[in-house]
Amino acid sequence: MSAVEAALSKKRPRRRDSESTPRYPLPEFRPFQLCKLTDDIPVGGNWLFEMKFDGYRAQIAISGSQVVVYTRNGHDWTRQFRVILPPLQALTKGSALIDGEIVAIDSQGRTNFSMLKTGIAAGMPLKFYAFDLLELNGEDLSNQPLLKRKERLAELLGERERHDSLQFSSHIADNGKKVFNTMCAGGHEGIIAKRADSRYVGDRTANWLKIKCTKRQEFVVGGYRQSDSGQGMASLILGTYENGKLIYRGRVGTGFTQAMRRTILAQLEKRPLDKPAFASVPRDIARRAKWVKPELVAEVTYSEVTPDGSLRHPSFEGMREDKRADQVVMEAPRTVATAATANLDPHMGKEIARAVGVTLTHPDKVMYPGTEVTKATLAAYYAAVAERMLPHIQDRPLSLVRDTDGDLQQTFFQKHKLPGMPKAIHDGQLEKMSGKESRILWVDDLAGLIAGVQMNVLEFHVWGSLRQQPNLPHRIIFDIDPDEGLGFDDVKQAAIDIRGVLEALGLRSWPLLSGGKGVHVVVPLVPEADWEAVKSFCQDFAELLARTDPSRFVANMSKARRKGRMFLDYLRNGQGATAICPWSTRARSGASCAVPVTWDELPTFKSANAFDVFAAAARAQESEAWEGYFDVEQTLTDRVRKAVR
User: Fold this and answer.
1) In a domain, 398, yes or no
2) pLDDT digits 0-9 by tens, 537-587
3) Are strands 579-580 and 411-414 parallel, antiparallel or unpaired?
4) For position 113, which CATH number holds?
5) Of 152, 180, 211, at which residue does a domain stop?
6) What is the CATH number of the domain that holds 260?
C-alpha cells in the first residue's frame, strides 16, 4: 500500500459488513389476497371494517433503505411511485412486506383514481395506506390472525405513520352497517370486511369481502368507434369475461378529455384485430366498430345494467394498467338506498380529517351537550355534505361562529385571522365599495371546512358575493324572523307568500330551513347590480309587505314593534353582511343544520330545525332540493326595482 493510500484509509475507515449490508434480504412478491363482492354486510365482533380505497393496490418490500413497490401483477413500479418512498426508506433497519393501497386524495377528502393517474405522471403528492403486514424481519406472518398482523403493522409504523404520505388503514370491529353508511354518505367507494382471525391467502376468498356504494368496475376494451369526422376516438366498446368468452357490455363515450382520447387512441391503434374478440355484438355497433386485441382495461362508473346486460349511463374513469384483461368479470354492485339518517362514525371522521391534512386535537370532545356529536363526528358530517355545501361557500368571505367551552353558552363571531389558525382557512384583503380595505377569511375545499371544525367553528356565515367580485352580489336573502309567540306554520306561509310576490316580479327563489326558528327565501342573481341597488330593493320589498299586510309583517327590526308579527330581515343584503351557509351546522342545542328544501315539501316540516347532523348528512345524498339554483339567469332590472317602490 502506498503512503497516499494508507493516509486515505485512515481518513475513511471501511464500513463493517453489518453497516453496509441489510440484515435481512428483500422480501419476495406474494400473490395478493383479494375480496369477494357481496351485497350483505357481515355482523359480529370477528369482522373488521375498513375504508375501500380507489387507487392502486401495492405490496411494499423493504430491506433497510431499499424499497420496491410491486403492483398486483408483481410488476416493479418503484419508479412510478417514488413520491411515497422517503418514509418507507426510513421505516426500519430490518425487512418488511406490507400490503396496502396507493391513492390520491381530492378536495372532498375522497380517494380519486382519475386524479391518481394524473398524479403519477405529474409527480404530485400521493399516499400509501398500509393495511396488512405479511413479513417482518424474515418472519412469515401470513399464518397469524389478521388482527395480530395489523397490531404488528401499527407498531412498525409508529411515529413514521404520521408522515403525510404513509398512513395506517385503521379498522372498526363490528358495526359494519354503520361504517358502510358513513362511507356512502361521504361519497366514498364502500367498505372492506375482513375476518379478524383469518390468515393471509394469495387468492380471492370469503374471508375478505367488498361492499360497494356505487356501481363501478373494470371492463375489457375490445374495440372502439371513430368520431364522425373519421379522426379520433368517439367511444370505447366494452366487455367482460364469462366462462372464457368476452361478453359485450356496451360503449362508453363520456368522461374523457381530449388528451385522454388521443393517448388511448394511440394505444388502440397498436392492437388492431380483423374480427371482434366478443362472442357477439349488436349489428348496429359492429357496423361502425374498429376491433382491437382485448388487452386494455378501463374503469367505468354506470347507473345500472339493462336486462340485456349492457351498461346504462356509463362514464370513463381511467385506464387500469395494474389489472389483467383476462381476469375481468362482471360484478354485481349494490345500489344503496339512503336511510332516514346517516351514521357519522367519529373514527372515520378522524381518518377523513387526516386524509385532507387536518389534525383534530381532542377529536372525542362533545360539541353539543346531551348528544354524541363530537368534533370527529362533525368532520365526518362535513365530508358527507361537502359536495353540496362547497358551491355555496367556496371563495366567499366568511364570518365564523366559534364555541369556547363546549356548552354553547360562550360563542363569538370571527371575521379576521387569529394566531394559530389552520392554513386551510385562507386570509386575505379586499377593497369595499366604500373604498375601505377589509381583511377577510375564506375556504375553498373540504380541508377548509374541517379546519373550521378543528377551531370549534359551529357556524359558517357567508357573504352574498365572491371575494373576486366583492362589489357585485350573487344572491338576495329574505330572512323571516318571527316574534316569539308565532308558530312555524306562520313562518312557512309567509315564505310561500313571499315566493309568490317574487314570482310575480319574475324572480325564482328557493327555501332554506335555517336550523333555528325561521326560513330563508333565497334568490340567486347574475352579478350585475351593486350592493346599494340590491339592499335598496330588499328594503323596498320588505316595506311593501309591511304596508300591504301589516297584521303579519313588519320592516322594523325592533322586537317591541314585532309583537305578533314577522320581521322580514333585509339587512343581510348589504356588503359585509352575512347569512348562514346552506348545510352549515348551527350553534344550537341538538346539533341542527341549515338545509335546503323544495317548495313542495316546505309545508310538511314542523320546525326550522328539522335536520340534525345525522339527518342532514343523509339528506345530502338524496336528489338536489335546489335543482336549477346555479343555472338560473335572472337580474335585478330597473323594472323590478321600480315595481316595489
Assistant:
1) yes
2) 999 999 999 999 999 998 877 776 778 889 888 888 999 899 999 999 999
3) unpaired
4) 3.30.470.30
5) 211
6) 2.40.50.140
**What is the tally of structural domains in the chain?**
3
Residues 116-162 pLDDT 10s: 877 786 777 899 999 999 999 999 999 999 999 999 999 999 865 55
129 C-beta neighbours (distance < 10 Å), count:
21
Which residue in this structure is represented by grid cell 355555496? 392
Upper half-sphere CA count for residue 414 (Cβ side, 13 Å): 22
Query: For the segment 265-296, what is each residue's pLDDT rounded down to a tens digit?
Result: 999 999 999 999 999 999 889 988 999 999 99
> Residue 291 is part of which domain span?
216-327
Predicted TM-score (pTM) above 0.90: no
Query: Domain for residue 193, yes or no?
Result: yes
Give 400's strand partners. 414, 460
Looking at the structure, tell me whether residues 194 and 263 fall in a common domain. no
The CB-based long-range contact list for 143-148 (8 Å cut-off, 24+ gap) reads 143/199, 143/200, 144/199, 145/196, 145/197, 145/198, 145/199, 146/48, 146/194, 146/195, 146/196, 146/197, 146/198, 146/199, 146/200, 147/48, 147/196, 147/197
Q: If you ran DSSP here, which 8-state letter would residue 373 be given?
A: -
Of 143, 178, 211, which residue is a domain's last? Answer: 211
Quickly state the pLDDT bin for 341 (edges 50, 70, 90). Answer: low
C-alpha cell at 127: 399516499
CB atoms within 10 A of CB 209: 21
